[in-house]
Amino acid sequence: MSTARADTFGTGTLSRAAALIHTLVTVEALLLLTAAPGLAGLLLLAPDPANLPLAALCLLPLGPSASAALHALHHRGRDLTDLHPARAFLRGWRLNALPVLRLWAPLLAWLTVIAFTLTHFSATGLPGWWAALLTLIGTGSLLWGAHALVLTALFTFRTRDTARLATYFLLRHPRATLGALSLLILTAAGTALLTEALPALLAAPLLLSLLHSGRPVIAETQKDFTA
Fold this sequence. Notes:
About 80% of the residues lie in helices and about 0% in strands. It is mostly helical. The protein starts with a helix and ends with a helix.
């Protein structure tokens, strides 16, 4: 009897739930800690369109932190007796920080250009439909970035290959893309209605949801694009 209990300890429903909560809390804390310099800078910036380039700089540390969080959540243990989320997070940060920045920095620069243009749209003299087009391009860029972030966090590809795969998966797996879009809309709505700190406070659950919606992307990448 004692042997059976020992074999099942840490694998039951309550234990798995406790393991998930422990992992989410640990990953959330480490994400906020590693991204803290940039997040603190964001809090000090006034909500002025002129500060958009500075806001982009402040968001640079968030890329490696989010990638490390995705890595840790993907490799999370289900057994309460064998949890190492902090170790997995730090390993993901060490492996993926530079690869992520090669994609994250250009994406932030591109989104900054779009946001700056939209906030000064009346001065551009462009027809109104350009604003809708720029909004659509910006949204597509964010969804591309979500796929690229997952791919960089879990696989080792050259930067241009990751960029191409992220573009390919945008239409290849519409459910995964729509899942990322729903998270984007949910985050934007929560930020507008509740608090600007909401994305940071719920980063770990949001990234876990991104992993869940991106399972077809992950599965096809493992099957067709890795040795």
